[in-house]
Amino acid sequence: MKNRVLGWAVTAALAVTLSVSQASAQKKYGPGVTDTEIKIGQTVPFSGPISAYATIGKVQAAYMRMVNDEGGVNGRKINLIQYDDAYSPPKTVEQVRKLVESDEVLLTFQLIGTPPNAAVQKYLNAKKVPQLFAATGASRFSDPKKYPWTIGFNPSYVVEGRIYGQYILKDHPDAKIGVLYQNDDVGKDYLKGLKSGLGARASKMIVAEAAYEVSDPTVDSQILKLRAAGATLLFSAATPKQAAQAIRKTFELGWKPVHILDINATSVGAVLQPAGLDASKGIISTNYGKDPLDPQWKDDPGMKKYFAFMAKYYPEGDENSNFNSYGYSTAQLLVQVLKQCGDDLTRANVMNQAANLKNVGLDLLLPDIRINTAPDDYRVNKQMQMMRFNGQRWELFGPVISDDASG
Fold it and tell me: Could you give the CA distance from residue 129 to residue 121 in angstroms, rounded to a whole number?
């Protein structure tokens, strides 16, 4: 009997040992991950020409504090390391190398801007470090064949431009179009998409194009050129500072073209108020998320969660800014990917999960919009709805548009 009891004890001890061993074996960690921490890195333009975007990084850091206060992700706290790159690609390269080689982060998250992301894309792919949810819609950041370790968050600028082209053909078929665009991948992709949407009529309808450099002090000369060309419709493919300048200069000139503004520059607080709300009235753009200023969402559960978060974790931030609601949504999606990873927190599995998002709804996405990705389709947001600024807030109009074409 004594030997039998001893045998049971040995068997039980062995079973416990095997169970612990198997549990440990199921955990797979990449750099920056322990049983208690997930280290993530990003650069943010806290200074420089587009420092208006700095609030995005601030709200993302606040979101991680909230997640950590609630116990983290699968028991692990998120350590978000942020460095200022001033929207300068050389600084981005320096800071991202530091994140990867010194801080040894698991992944980079939401690097802001097309030029900064482009500057480190080849490096991160060569190192097989996830460049997750890059804050840019340039098509090169949703190209799994060429850059399998890069996935963008923003709607493709080509797709967005194509939607504007289709809208113009339907609602302003006789327009003479003047295009203001940033002289980089952002502006060039928008221009490409606009021409694609206009199709065979593009060469006749576009009467002038005016590029600007992000370092240019103003875009006054470009606006004067477009007006002189006889444009009756102005398409601004611009970042916040230049978009606000274009709106203000157009207003001061008494020039009243139909004005279409890209999604990157639709913040009321950072763009339209500085330009002047009266000057901004009637501007057209598109969106895929709920506008905090829109009263139709005042009783929406997702919006209530966002406002409660802002009040507690980022009270100094503007709760009505769509830059802040954007930061909230991107942070929420990052947490979704980390949850899907479970205990396999390797760089390869991070990309696998990011490329296999299925019908993901976020608190601030429009009700009929869902996020779906696939190994051969890295486009996170490919559904949008048109909107118009009424002088106080944006108003949605028309149906949700889904783009089924790649890129």
Answer: 10
